[in-house]
Protein: DNA-binding LacI/PurR family transcriptional regulator
Organism: Microlunatus panaciterrae
Amino acid sequence: MQDVARLAGVSHQTVSRVLNNHPNVRPETRDRVRAAIAEMGYRRNSAARALVTSRSGTIGVLTHSSALYGPVLTLHSVEQAARAAGLFVSLASLRSDEDAVLSGALDHFLDQAVEGIIVIAPVPGVAQAAAALASRLPIVLVADSDQPDLHPVTVDQAYGARLATDHLLSLGHREVVHVSGLPSWFDAAARVRGWAQALADTGCAVPEPLVGDWTAESGAAIGAELARTDPPTAIFAANDLMALGLIRALTDAGLRVPEDVSVVGFDDSYGSGFFRPALTTVRQDFVELGRRCVERMLGLLGGDADDGRTVVRPDLVLRESTAAPRAARRP
């Protein structure tokens, strides 16, 4: 930094202000310092800075290993928001929630002196492991959970399920079947609650949800079984992939979507507008979710003791896969 200061003709403190994006630097001075940095190939020594400040500027992100749209987009949005806030991210991805695997991941974070951990936890086992560190580090839990010591930040999954179900009920459907995700997942359980409550509030029967595993294959298997019996007029699927499988199986059985069966998904995943028919679905704002997670973490690092739950509301995206029920369905 002293070499950069000499080349730019400024003080050591001015170089520090430029590196830390301090506003009180004249534009021409900032440009001169940046030109000197580029010419010399200077890179900040993060390890040395951590020794001086006793802060690593790094947060850990613990996530369940999954290629599903929701967890992947959540991870991406958290990483982008952290980088925009000037934080480094150390990632640990879990393939299972066994105690040894979780302990190894958390020890990895402690060895790196992370200042806090954001836990993207679709399943309770990951959240429980993170809770063991809550007395030592700030923890932000990305899950539909009510654990205040983990400072949950979540999309309101139950509200999203209500949006989907209320939409189908408003069209005149009186029987809405739900194809759920894995019951062990926080989001799946919350979506079941929202769907069931919407039906109960309007006096409709609440059937047992049909359990899928988030994949299009499970949606297709459930759709084929429904088509062989007496298919309902409306189905709410817990994610877009299962909705895609459902539409394929119903179409193969000679049923039309939405003329015979209306289908709603959840996530508004890439390409859902190009299903045939284009899919009505619930959109989660993952960019806002990531921003809120990092904002909450920065508050905790700054001494904010608020244990409140941060909630992001989803939206319903209306497309072509839903319609009013026909007076007579095809047999």
Summary: Residues 183 and 189 are 6 Å apart (CA to CA).
